[in-house]
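Pipeline run #58 for the internal structure catalog. This entry was flagged by the ingest filter as a single-chain record with no existing model, so it goes straight to prediction. Upstream metadata was stripped on purpose; only the residue string is passed forward. Reviewer on rotation: M.T. Logging verbosity set to normal.
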Amino acid sequence: MCQWLETAPGAYALDWMQHRCDQALVDVFGYHALQLGLPELQGLRANRMPGRWLAGLAGQGQGKPTAGTALLCDGTALPFESASLDLVVLPLTLDLSDDPHETLREVERVLVPEGRVLVLGLNPASLWGLRQKRAHVYRRMGLGQLYLPGEGQFIAHWRLRDWLRLLSFEVESSEFGCYRPAMRSPQWLQRYAWMDALGHRSWPIFGAVYSVMAVKRVKGMRLIGPAWKSQRAVGKSAVPAINRMGCDCPTHES
């Protein structure tokens, strides 16, 4: 992954993810935030929470910390108590995880109710994803070179939304970016810069990179009213009695 981020398409994708994090997290409030993976990205730099951690994933390289305390942990067993974090950022973390669903479940565990998770991923339903699939076919024949990182498996946007719903997350927003063709040359990528605006308007869900912001919802108790019924107020005025003869005259004692 580190080597791919140094290429022209990798730097292009990293720049979009940085801009997206700065835009989406500046107004997310709380006390404790965690970025899990991809230390090359300063995902929490615009956020103002007092406690911020950058955790590297075991087996993927630690990198240099950009904010808070550096950690090294397993994505499926985070060293945090349940309901202790207000925000978790997952930059390509699920794409590179051996068990992305279990990693997302662990994120749900450590988030407080109404806590937020920002997921950044590479979109397989894009020009970049199509080139990657074609490169895999050629590699089986001993030809070609992968365009995207070879490790991990890229998760489709619709599948991620299904996973989030199963874990009681509510998707707040989704954004796509990086609409330029799958080219390696920085000069050619720059020539197609105009496609970013066009793609955002014309085919918005086919960007090479996407982000999903979701909120952890916890079902609360339903308040039930009192079992008794309110009694009617008794009037002070006399109520006429009806005798057996159908007369509504007042009754008299003998």
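catalog note: The first helix runs from residue 2 to 5.
catalog note: Residues 61-68, 227-237, 241-247 have pLDDT under 50 and may be disordered.
status: ready for reviewer M.T.
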